[in-house]
Design brief:
With about 475 residues, the protein is an alpha+beta fold. It has 18 helices and 16 strands. Strands 5, 6, 7, 9, 10, 12, 13, 14, 15 and 16 form a ten-stranded antiparallel beta sheet that branches. The protein has a four-stranded mixed beta sheet with strand order 2-1-4-3.
Length: about 475
């Protein structure tokens, strides 16, 4: 009869780690005022780690009074103790660490070469990479780039950044981004930014690398021109000047002509001033941006979430690669005119639609799904499949809320006097001009803004709104 008690052994080794009895290894972790002495046992370290097996050899080891001495100034004491606890008893809880510390933890684990723990940290990073990128985009990208074993995480991160470049480019640490990483981003065909916007960010980055140089290029002396030319030279050919308008080129690019290769400047000037002249140069192709839907308010990820809601699935049921619907832009208030008449002209009798509303002076969006149609005369329409939704922050997909209709007889209303109308309350509708109102009755509460009261209604102002026809692929 066999008998095993692995948990008892684990508990005993954890006690050995905590009590430090008969230790023969002293580790000085951290540096300066943060240095701390940590005790361990060489027989455990040798058994569980190839790194320590080598480090404790006669050739490497430093000994004092019969004890091995290790100095690890680049690893903080709390992180080193977590690693040692794993070595002793196989226990680790990454939830104890803040995001920057997890990145430091990965670096330390990689150095000490504990492959099992490295794999566990990588799996944790993949699971939480959205959160990591949103909160610490620059640090996360730089750490991931260091490790060949993080290929999956690297690909996921780039895909998200290409689709939502503001994660990196709007970061307050953008100008600290390493040059080789900026080069990778600017080379991509999938970077979802206008070319002149990319140029503006590049100039911002270059100026930040030389903070003692004036931001006004007309004030530069010869030495400063040379310095700025050396800073930008690897990036300038990555800007697709052929896809910058003449106005933007003259106003935003031409002032920096002294630091841009002369052939790039001359070719751009010729192509606009003498468009019939044939140039013996390759025309740069435009970037193929990931978001194939014509929206200025939301990204592809929002459409994948909406697709999941349409089929009454959880938010992540679909991703950007398998969206089962086409979303055809029918109406944009800022483009077509923010009037009830134009809304009905563009959107009536087009079948199912999704409405996206951007709230003024915020990143909030709200909207609704009508699975039937809009027209000017039908009044109330009945359906069990409509919903309204909100994103407290459109850049944070975790802030999404959706509410399906509770009173199906009053799901949507069609009237020539109003634009989109959801619910009997009416729960969400376009009132007059940029004013939208809400009075929840047919749908659950989903945090629709309450900027001011207008009678029984909560009212708010919309900066813009879009309506998309929803067509199953």
């Amino acid at each position: 009869m066999s008998f095993e008690c692995p948990q008892e052994i684990i508990n005993d080794y954890e006690k050995l780690f905590e009590n430090e009895e008969e230790y023969d290894v002293i580790i000085y972790a951290g540096e300066n005022e943060n240095i701390k002495e940590i005790h361990a046992h060489s027989f455990v370290l040798r058994t569980r780690s190839q790194y320590f097996r080598t480090a404790l050899s006669k050739e490497w080891s430093e000994k004092k009074d019969g004890k091995f001495i290790f100095r690890k100034p680049n690893i903080s004491p709390p992180i080193f103790k977590m690693i040692l606890r794993f070595i002793y008893c196989g226990k680790i809880d990454l939830e104890e660490l803040q995001i920057p510390d997890i990145l430091k933890f990965l670096t330390a684990v990689d150095e000490i070469d504990i492959q099992t723990l490295t794999k566990h940290v990588q799996e944790y990073l993949v699971k939480h990479y959205d959160e990591f990128l949103l909160q610490h985009p620059i640090e996360t990208l730089e750490v991931i780039y260091q490790y060949e074993s993080l290929t999956t995480l690297w690909d996921l991160s780039l895909e998200k950044i290409y689709e939502e470049p503001e994660i990196i480019f709007n970061s307050d640490k953008f100008t600290s981004l390493k040059a080789h990483l900026l080069e990778i981003l600017l080379k991509s065909d999938e970077l979802s930014l206008g070319e002149i916007v990319i140029w503006d960010y590049l100039i911002k980055w270059c100026l930040a690398q030389n903070s003692n140089i004036s931001q006004d290029p007309t004030q530069w002396n010869k030495d400063e021109i040379v310095i700025m030319e050396e800073t930008i030279h690897r990036f300038a050919p990555l800007i697709r000047f052929d896809h910058i308008s003449s106005e933007d080129f003259i106003i935003k690019v031409y002032p920096f002509k002294e630091i841009i290769p002369k052939d790039l400047v001359n070719n751009k000037l010729i192509s606009h001033m003498a468009p019939n002249k044939q140039l013996n140069v390759d025309i740069q192709s435009p970037r193929q941006q990931k978001c194939i839907y014509d929206s200025i308010l939301i990204k592809s990820k929002h459409f994948s979430i909406v697709s999941s809601w349409i089929e009454k699935k959880n938010d992540s049921y679909y991703d950007t690669k398998n969206i089962p619907y086409n979303f055809n832009l029918l109406y944009r208030a800022s483009r077509d005119g923010n009037t009830t008449e134009v809304f009905h002209e563009k959107c009536d009798n087009k079948g199912a639609t999704i409405v996206i509303v951007k709230i003024t002076n915020s990143e909030r969006i709200v909207g609704g799904y009508n699975p039937l149609y809009w027209d000017s005369t039908s009044g109330w329409l009945s359906t069990k499949d409509s919903f309204i939704f909100s994103f407290t922050n459109r850049k944070n997909f975790q802030s999404a809320k959706v509410g399906y209709v509770a009173d199906a007889n009053y799901a949507v209303q069609c009237s020539s006097s109003y634009g989109p109308m959801f619910g009997v309350g009416i729960d969400l509708f376009s009132s007059i001009g940029s004013t939208w109102k809400s009075y929840t009755r047919s749908y659950p509460e989903i945090d629709i803004p309450q900027d001011r009261k207008m009678g029984n209604y909560n009212a708010f102002d919309a900066e813009d709104y879009e309506v998309f026809q929803v067509v199953k692929k």
